[in-house]
Design goal:
With 432 residues, the protein is an alpha+beta fold. It folds into two domains: 213 residues, Antithrombin, Chain I, domain 2; 175 residues, Alpha-1-antitrypsin, domain 1 (Roll). 23% of the residues lie in helices and 33% in strands. It has a seven-stranded antiparallel β-sheet with strand order 1-20-19-9-8-7-10. The longest helix has 20 residues. It starts with a helix and ends with a strand.
């Protein structure tokens, strides 16, 4: 169990590092990347291996085992589907020791027909994510030698659904917009808390799913960056900073977007938590090689003899691309997210009010972060930053029947271009 906890902390730390360089209005999954990095490290040598191991945050020699352990742990989580796929050209001979570490049935063949191979990889991505991601983020060509990919999808329904309403923020970047607001009241005050982090105060709201997949909404001080807020959320999960729970919050302005007030009532009423947030749908495309230092891929991109991955194949291989397509949707009744990552190695009345009760009011009406995680292990499965929430929609009955999860029309699933650049992304290529 100790090694699993160490791996989870390493994955979450990669989430924080990625958040520091990710653009606003995004979603990403370090949990979708980390196992691939671990398998690559298992077959890497020299400086490439050292760099990957450092980025992974696990001892040298344990990356492959940790990757397999993580894949197994995610596979046992309710509401989470994960898959690993490897496709190679038929003439590429893999090291038996490396191939033996892959899940059974994960190895497929490339036919050297980019159209047929592309259709097969797209079908795999769509099937493994339940249609949330429709295309593999990889560009294929006739000389593509290897594609290593992971798929991750998660779905949950809230234990206590929200009520949809039109909301119009009175200030901030969403001023003047009519948004699809989500509201609910609960008597459980420990769903909210204010963290005192190294960057500033962050309000954390826990929205619990019925299968132990939860989403934590993070609202920081206005001066804080997206990366700082998300990293603060990871620190909270790791218990690296103090958190003042809802029942201990002082009256008045208690934290970002948070106010504690007294309300008169007709009788004795327990304290309550009133939440107002917004529905959102986010999609993103990430090129991991734009920030290779975050993922330990700098040396892996080089094509020096004998190649960075002697443990994968006797043929010299290097990483030509590494991409991820990701999406997330947060609606009244639930949440869903997915990521596909591909490494290519060329990749009533007026009452009498006599009693007083405490009400904690939480309002998320400006950009905020989110972490989707497994409640028991605290593994972050997806993370993101919301800058463009869903507008209040004009729904028709047919749309409501076709979309039982509720919410506005979601943006289309992210896709990757099929036109190859000079070094086709998403594949391993042999050195000349």
């Amino acid at each position: 169990m100790g090694s699993t906890h160490r791996t989870i902390r390493a994955v979450n730390d990669l989430t924080a590092r990625w958040a520091a360089v990710a653009p606003g209005g995004t979603v990403f999954s370090a949990a979708g990347v980390w196992p691939l990095l671990g398998l690559l490290a298992d077959g890497a040598g020299g400086a490439a291996r050292a760099e990957l191991v450092e980025a992974l945050g696990v001892p040298d020699g344990q990356a492959g085992a940790a990757a397999r352990e993580l894949l197994g742990a995610m596979g046992a989580m309710r509401g989470v589907d994960r898959a690993l796929g490897l496709w190679t050209r038929r003439t590429l001979e893999l090291r038996e020791s490396w191939e033996a570490g892959l899940p059974a049935g994960a190895h497929g063949a490339l036919t050297a027909d980019p159209v047929a191979d592309g259709a097969a990889l797209d079908a795999w991505a769509a099937e493994r994510t339940g249609g949330l991601i429709e295309r593999m983020p990889v560009t294929l060509s006739e000389d593509t030698d290897l594609v290593l990919a992971s798929a991750l999808a998660l779905r949950t329904r809230w234990l206590r659904p929200f009520t949809e309403t039109a909301t119009e923020p009175e200030a901030g970047p969403w001023l003047g917009r009519t948004l699809l607001g989500l509201r609910r009241r609960t008597r459980v005050l420990d769903r909210i808390g204010v963290a005192d982090t190294r960057w500033g105060h962050v309000t954390e709201l826990k929205v619990l799913g019925d299968n132990a997949v939860d989403v934590h909404l993070l609202l920081g001080e206005e001066r804080m960056t997206a990366g700082q807020v998300l990293a603060a959320g990871v620190d909270v999960l790791a218990r690296r900073c103090p958190v003042l729970p809802g029942q201990a919050l002082p009256y008045g302005e208690a934290g970002p977007g948070l106010r504690v007030v007294k309300e008169l009532s007709t009788g004795p009423v327990p304290p309550s938590l009133d939440v107002e947030t917004v529905a959102f749908g986010v999609t993103a495309q990430h090129d991991l090689l734009e920030r290779p230092e975050v993922f330990g891929l700098g040396t892996a991109m080089l094509d020096d003899t004998p190649g960075p991955f002697p443990g994968i194949s006797a043929d010299p291989l290097c990483v030509a691309s590494a991409r991820q397509s990701a999406m997330a949707r947060f609606f009244a009744r639930g949440f869903e997210a997915a990521a596909v990552t591909a490494f290519g190695m060329v990749g009533a009345g007026v009452p009498r009010l006599r009693w007083a009760t405490t009400v904690v009011e939480a309002v998320y009406d400006r950009p905020f972060g989110f972490l989707a995680l497994h409640r028991h292990s605290r593994l972050v499965l997806a993370a993101g930053w919301v800058t463009d929430p869903e507008p209040y929609p004009d729904r028709d009955p047919e749309y409501a029947e076709e979309h039982p999860w509720g919410g506005a029309r979601a943006a289309p699933a992210p896709t990757a271009p099929r036109t190859a650049p000079t070094a086709p992304p998403g594949r391993l290529v042999p050195r000349p």
